[in-house]
Specification:
By secondary structure, the protein is mainly α. Helix content is 79%, strand content 0%. Helix 1 packs across helix 2, helix 1 runs antiparallel to helix 3 and helix 2 packs across helix 3.
């Protein structure tokens, strides 16, 4: 595999895991499983927010109000998986 493709694949996979972690942490805070005032939880939550929010905000602006359900991480994950497949497909097409 091309090292550049490996790097793109790794970065997309890592970002998907960060999106999943941010969603899970938001659920844990919402259901009072973890205390958001805990310094470690607050730092992790702030980091995840700063990393994921720039990509999620435009999607949230396009989506209608779904009554408190945020599906923007799911949509972004699907878009990232599509982008990864598209990049690999284009690489195979160009390499031939």
């Amino acid at each position: 595999m091309n090292p550049f493709l490996w790097l793109i694949d790794t970065l997309i996979t890592l970002y998907i895991w960060l999106l999943i972690a941010a969603a899970v942490l938001s659920w844990l805070v919402a259901f009072n499983v973890v205390n958001a005032r805990n310094p470690i939880v607050a730092r992790v939550g702030e980091f995840l927010y700063q990393v994921t929010e720039p990509a999620l905000r435009p999607i949230r602006n396009l989506l209608p109000n779904l009554g408190g359900i945020d599906i923007s991480p799911v949509i972004l994950i699907i878009l990232l998986l599509f982008l990864r497949q598209l990049i690999f497909w284009l690489y195979v097409r160009i390499a031939i």
